Amino acid sequence: MTIWDEVVSYLFHDRLFMKQLEICYSPGLAPAYDFEEKTVVVTDIFRATSCMVSGIASGLKAIVPVLTLEEVPPFKEQGFLTAGERNGVKIPAFDFGNSPFDFMQAEYKGRSVVMTTTNGTKAIDCAKSGNEILIGAFLNISAVAKILRESSKDVVVLCAGWKNRFNLEDTLFAGALATMLSSEFDVSSDETRAAMLLYEQAKNNLLGFLEVSSHAQRLGKLNGGKDIAFCLKHDEFDSVPVLKNNQLIKYE
Ligand code: MLT
Predict the structure, then answer these.
(1) How far is the CA of 88 from the centre of ligand 1 (A)?
(2) Which of 21, 98, 135, 231 could form a disulfide with 50 if both were Cys (CB 3.0 to 4.6 A apart)?
(3) pLDDT in tens, 128-141
(4) What is the Å distance from ligand 1's center to 239 Cα?
(5) Residue 47 region, left (φ>0) first, then alpha (ψ -120 to 50), else beta?
(6) Ligand 1 binding pocket, CB closer than 6 Å
């Protein structure tokens, strides 16, 4: 081994120059993280970010995530479609709820949607101090990984969780993404290791592993079984929504 090889090995093996990938398990833990100068990947597997990915990949022009029901009417007046739920249940006055199949309807191509959900849109709002905000789901996981590899920025995966608490499905996505990037990123923090270990245990049967999760059970009672199976498909789409001027549009 030459001196140069030793220097390179020291620098990279000891991860001095590696980009860091951290995982924040819920918006409630966000005050403990610094999003500035980092790419934040927001994920809400069941179902908000899976809907956003499906909608943008299927030709929606933009999705505006908002926190409250009160913010929706001014967008509706401008011609936006309205989408959203509370506790998994569609808001009666809205055009559609929070199923990825709603967001993929051919008749909505080229339209813009205003959307409010229990946890997903809240997580996006919480990520706003980030340098760039990407929307991730199993449905576009390889496309997200590609962007992160090509960027020089550190990464925080922000799990939407459930009402500021941990959930299994977002953690598994974060663990899967960290596993994909583990040779290029420093994934040595405790929370990242924990998510990777969990993903390792669940990866051969994600659906079976997640059947008992709180939100899968909740959605099961609301006839959301078809959504759950779809949201766990990998790489159905190769595009990534990115937040620009408070709108989610296709990353280019
Ligand atoms: C959320 O934002 O909490 C969810 O996406 C809930 C849902 O499944 O509709």
Answers:
(1) 5
(2) 231
(3) 999 999 999 999 99
(4) 21
(5) alpha
(6) 44, 46-48, 85, 88, 98, 117-120, 160, 219
